[in-house]
Design a protein that fits this description.
63% of the residues lie in helices and 10% in strands. The protein has 63 residues and is mainly α. It has a two-stranded parallel ribbon.
Length: 63
């Protein structure tokens, strides 16, 4: 896992400590994914896993 992917994983973990994801946290995660102008498979996998947790109701979305 490269440094940017590791950073994104830590951002997601921090954002989800309360079981909720704010729109600001979501935007910050997406910005970090795009920050190096190269989206890797690992980064997309992390974001898809986050989306799946939201879809399954494991994570709530805050506005």
């Amino acid at each position: 896992m490269d440094a940017n992917t590791n950073k994104i994983q830590k951002m997601i973990e921090r954002a989800l400590t309360d079981g909720r994801l704010s729109s600001q946290e979501d935007e910050e995660i997406k910005a970090a994914i795009r920050s190096d102008h190269q989206v890797t498979r690992e980064e997309m996998k992390l974001y898809r896993e986050l989306q799946q947790q939201i879809f399954e109701g494991e994570i709530l979305i805050d506005d």
